[in-house]
Amino acid sequence: MTTPLDRLQSSGSGARGRGETAIDPQALMRIKSLELRARVVVEGFVTGLHRSPFHGFSVEFSEYRQYSPGDDPRYLDWRLYARSDRYYIKRFEDETNLRCSVVLDMSRSMGYGSGPVTKAEYARTLAATIAYFLTLQRDAVGLITFEDRVVDVLPPRHRPGQLRRMLAMLERTPTGRATDLAGPLEEIAATLRRRGLIVLVSDLLAPIDLLRTRLGSLKARGHDLLVVRVLDPAEVDFRFETPAMFHDVESGRELYIDPGAARAEYLRRFAEHAAGVERACADLGIEFAPMTTDRPLDTVLFDFLKARERRGRRPDRRRKSGQGGGR
Known about the structure:
Elements: H1 4-8, H2 25-29, H3 34-51, E1 61-66, H4 78-84, E2 88-92, E3 99-105, H5 119-136, E4 140-146, E5 150-157, H6 162-170, H7 182-191, E6 197-202, H8 208-220, E7 224-231, H9 233-237, E8 244-247, E9 254-257, H10 259-284, E10 287-292, H11 298-311
Parallel strand pairs: 3-4, 3-6, 6-7, 7-10
Antiparallel strand pairs: 1-2, 4-5, 8-9
Helix pairs in contact: 3-5, 3-11, 5-6, 7-8, 8-10
């Protein structure tokens, strides 16, 4: 039977050494169901990952646990078996619980799109994909959306109905009037009191000093962060050719711009801001993943797993006694 993945995956792409499937974002967005989009991306990513050299990302040994039918026999510890006459397998950090909050920028600037895919639609699909992936892994995942203020907060949980609640939040139409990262990030820092992983999805159109301060505040509270910057390709390379009136989606102003005269200065300022964002994240020890809306979304999942592999996770060890995990 043909699956949505079979129809969307580029012919002959396979895994390109990173577990990617090259699912075209424009084709993906033709699927109306946000949950089905997320499923297609995750299935494609997992398929590509199995075909690639990366059969697993966790290499840090944590503890032993008794063998159960269905466990991979490659991880049986034969030396321990020789001493105890019992089968045990090595347990890895990747099997422990994770608390993750996806923080999604839904401000007016995210509504821009030079093509059929807007930054907002791409970002919400990306958020749904991460949520779907973590739900399959039985991790606790939550969602915070903001415009010029925090709009919705769903704390990280792993329980029936959590994914559907997140998807319902993501389907809401943004009504914000401006991009204001200062207030929302300050409120989020005060809201997320339990340490965990925060995935911030935004175009980050804010002053560098402000971003550094607010992201630093989240790091100071003990959170791990992955910042995913979503931009339209036209914002990156200024593809406009003909003089025209440009509409500012946040202020509502109409501006006449001659691309030939403005391109050099725009590209200089954009490069300066992009370098500042990347430098701020590096200085703070924050994982940074720049994305444009024409890139396959499964590349973010690869960056997500790399971030967890490099930095490790902070599992709640109490969950074994039924006390942790926010479930």
